Each structure stands twice: as structure tokens, then as C-alpha cells.
Amino acid sequence: MSLPGRDGWGVLGTLHAVPALDRPDLLAEPVVRALKEFDAARVGVAEIDSDLADTAEFCRAYDSPPGSSANCVVVAGKRAGEVRYAACLVLATTRADVNGVVKRRLDVRKASFAPMDEAVALTGMAYGGITPIGLPADWPLWLAPEVAEADAVVVGSGTRHAKLAVPGELLVSLPNATVVPDLAQPVRSP
């Protein structure tokens, strides 16, 4: 459970959250550095079983609402031989419009999810735990409006053994963050 008076930490379901910087052992190094730069007291962290880091498993195991979890995806595209990267943060109940909105914003012919090893190496974070906090300084961070407007969302901690609860307004204040209309599309049923 969240501590009384902590913005939105209840999105972590049955987990007990503490201020993120109280447990740097649960955070990737780039996340620790970034949290020192803004209102980190409003960011909660909770330890989880690393086998339950994927969103669906996490939500089931810890009774966290799927509509309150956000996925941070790293996308890449090439233009004139230059690889361009960006991160997109969308609710777990949606998907990033990589072939439309993302491709146009990156100004590339084709955009796709960055390969796992590349995303891990460039962010200094674990795959399945990549978070918008602490991304490379030159990357744009595009947020779905639903994420930006949320009281709080669950995101990765840069590791697979913890999750963060972060107010949407703090995510909007991250470096290079932009709210992008139509970034998130509904997930289509098979």
C-alpha cells in the first residue's frame, strides 16, 4: 500500500512504496541521477519479483490497474544514414503509433522498436524496466495525453526488480518531454 499523502502511489496495488531515492538499490544508475534533478519526493518505488516485471504479470500479481501502468518504448529510424531515437510513453492498455505519428515526428521513412540490446546499451537500463526517467539527454520523450493527465502511473525503475509510481505532471516536466496527441492507439483484439 502507498503511504498516506503520497500522490498516486496506490497505483502500485498491494505493494508498499517508499520515496524512490530512499532505495537507490532498486533503481538503475541513470534513474538515480535524473531523480536528483527534480521533485523526487513525489516518486514512489516498490520492490517486485523480477519474473513479474512485464506489465500483464505485474498487474495480476500486485492488483495494480492495467490502465494505470505505462510502457516506455524506445523507437528508432534512419534518415540519411543517421539513426534517430525517441522514447514513447503510453498506457499499457494502448500501443504507440510507431508507423504513423512516431515515424512522422522522427522524420524517417521507417520507424520501429529499437533492438533490445541496443535499447539496453543506450539507456543503461534493463530490458523490461526501461523508464522515461534518466533517458539519454538528446532523445525526445513523447507522452500520450492520457499519461500526462494521470494522477500517477506505474513505470519501470530502470531495473526489472522494482516499479515506480510517478505523477503525470512530473513526467511532463522531464527533459525533452512533449505531450503528443494521437500517440497512443487502442490495442486491437485478435
From TrEMBL:
Domain YbaK/aminoacyl-tRNA synthetase-associated: 51-171
Taxonomic superkingdom: Bacteria
InterPro entries tied to this protein: YbaK/aa-tRNA-synt-asso_dom_sf, YbaK/aa-tRNA-synth-assoc-dom
Pfam assignment, any one: tRNA_edit
GO molecular function: aminoacyl-tRNA deacylase activity
Protein name: Cys-tRNA(Pro) deacylase, prolyl-tRNA editing enzyme YbaK/EbsC
